[in-house]
From TrEMBL:
It comes from the Bacteria. Residues 24-200 form the Beta-lactamase-related domain. SUPFAM superfamilies: beta-lactamase/transpeptidase-like (SSF56601). This is Beta-lactamase. Pfam families: Beta-lactamase (PF00144). Gene3D superfamilies: DD-peptidase/beta-lactamase superfamily. InterPro entries: AmpC-like, Beta-lactam-related, Beta-lactam/transpept-like.
């Protein structure tokens, strides 16, 4: 019995020491980069081993960080889109090898003839398309009109028409339009907007993703 108590005490001691070490390390990063608040967690497959909130809610205040504080997570669109795609594939509403132009045949004749990629290609960045990001000057806002769903469609119609595939072999082809294309495929397969799909996922997982347009 004494051995069990000793083992428990030692386990608690080392766990506390490990936690304090993590706290100091994470807080040093927060201070170095002038970040007001940071929350971190150490998890296993089935439990939360350690979780902590450090710093203040706002710069220049004494409002201490709290685990109930909410953070805006930027650029999670790829994660969410991949998850939705996997769910829809499992439900049989679309396949990984479904090709973009199988769902949008009207765009094929207007696009580069070499572009013929699958949902899996787009999700895994294996589609040989050029890099494009939000800093690009084209297309202009005047060229891409309509609501969010219509703008996604118009953008990909423009992108596939303007760009040729990359002939040079690469391990991955990083390009944001891959996920715009994947999102369009999920919309066509379900008859629902991407925003609706995200809201439904959030409801099922009890997660509030906030403004989908800013993900």
């Amino acid at each position: 019995m004494k051995k069990n108590h000793l083992f428990l005490l030692l386990s608690l001691f080392f766990s506390f020491t490990y936690s304090q070490k993590n706290n100091r390390f994470v807080d040093s990063i927060r201070i170095k980069y002038n970040i007001p608040e940071v929350t971190y967690a150490v998890v296993s497959a089935d439990s939360i081993l350690e979780i902590s909130a450090l710093g203040n809610k706002r710069i220049g205040t004494d409002l201490k960080a709290d685990l109930s504080d909410k953070f805006r997570l930027g650029s999670i669109t790829k994660t969410v889109t991949s998850y939705i795609a996997a769910v829809l594939v499992k439900e049989g509403k679309i396949n990984w090898d479904t090709k973009f132009f199988d769902l949008y045949p009207e765009l094929k004749s207007k696009s580069n003839s070499d572009i013929d990629f699958t949902l899996k290609d787009f999700i895994t960045f294996r589609a040989h398309i050029p890099t494009w990001s939000y800093g690009n000057e084209t297309p202009t806002q005047k060229e891409i009109k309509g609501n969010d769903q219509q703008q996604r469609y118009e953008f990909m119609a423009w992108f596939f028409k303007q760009n040729k595939i990359i002939s040079e072999k690469q391990d991955v082809y990083w390009s944001n339009p891959s996920y715009v294309a994947a999102g369009l495929m999920l919309e066509k397969a379900t008859g629902k907007s991407y925003e609706t799909l995200v809201k439904e996922l959030g409801k099922n997982l009890n997660i509030d993703f906030g403004l989908v347009s800013q993900m």
